[in-house]
Model the fold of this input.
Amino acid sequence: MIKAVTGTKDTLPGEINKWKYLENIVHDVFSHFNYKEIRTPVFEETILFARGIGEETDIVGKEMYSFLDRSETNLTLKPEMTASVVRAYIEHSLGNQQPLNKLFYISPMFRQERPQAGRLRQFHQFGGEALGSTSPYLDAEMIQMSFHILKQLGLNDLTVKINTLGVPASREIYKQKLKSFLQDKKHLLSADSKKRFDTNILRIFDSKVDEDQQLLKEAPTLLEYLDDDSRNDFDLLMKAISSAGIPFEIDPKLVRGLDYYTKTTFEIISGKVGSQSALCGGGRYDLLIEELGGKPTPGVGFAAGIERILLACENEKSFTLPDDSLDLYIVKLDKELSNVIFDSASFFRRVNYTVDYDYLDRSVKAQMREANKMNARFVLFIGGDEFKSGFCNLKNMISGEQYQVPVNQLDQILNYFKNAS
RNA sequence: GUGAGCGUAGCUCAGUUGGUUAGAGCACCAGGUUGUGGCCCUGGGGGUCGUGGGUUCAAUUCCCAUCGCUCACCCCA
Done:
């Protein structure tokens, strides 16, 4: 048997309604904030991600699905969306058409990691990007939108964490301070953190090892070395999300792994999804667009993992799906009447009723069981003596009541429907 | 890439201290009198016991390998 590739999943009919439910909320919230949807190809030239995300990151270093196509072009299935959005923004000069572009997306992403709870190799994200303004109110908007979507899905076990990384200059000064602070304690660090010491020292804060965290307790914090501009924006951001009624905590340890972040970073985590608890994360990237060859343009955005969110929803039983029951099931009493059944089903479907009937020539009892299983509100019986004399029976499946109606006046049945519902 | 656990019907799981036709519940199908559901009853279909090799008179049960799944580390959404 050929099976789906490791880390990929089929979404079967029983589950698709949850996705649609979520997608509807996503569309709804983004459009209320006046964000416009953008779609980009699933693959791009590899160099886009290498340059945008950072050569040194794990994503670029060991997780990308990269391959040469038949004309020897080095392509990569997109591991995240921001680089693609920025590429499209530059390529189509969106910045010249209007000074601020507010965009959102829902799209599959690909990273070759070891699958675990809330982590797949093909996974799906929705997210927003605002390109063209340094206003911290846009940062606030990102947090607001993502929080709002999660709330609309009925999630409660949420923690919003925010931090600011400042501008590169102040961050460099801080990195030096941190380095000298840890220098003589380096031998006490875990193996992973020793590596981080050289590659990306800020990530040591991410360590789950207790000893590492103990050592860091006395460490200087980034906030102490912030430039005035970043500090001011951070203050405005906190005020804004406070007045939006969003509870948050400042987490100086929140250091995004992608190279392009500046100033604000944030994350919303759930206590209901296992160890991959970040449902969404994002931040400001004021230097990325320039880095990718565009005019210097500030930007801010976030991405959210749909599988993780759905997992949290499942575990919190956070919402119930609207029912997708049938309005009408047509029961065929005589096998010869298939064409009549077909025509009447067409009639009801044309006027937007959800209708189904039996295609397997099964017994009336089996047809009734089917109607019941599909939660049909009404059953129409066609056939037998009453059909010959121009009538058929309509049964209300909830009350059990049954009425005889003229078969050449199906519109009268429609009236009955409307009155009954 | 590292580590741990698990692989028996569509699903959730029993079971075999190695021994003839491998079980249950749910789901599915058909019946329970002539053309009518939800409950109930009866019957039925469906499993190379993940795959390959080894030990044995005999393996689904023991051993080895392999593949897959799950969770965690790492990293991230």
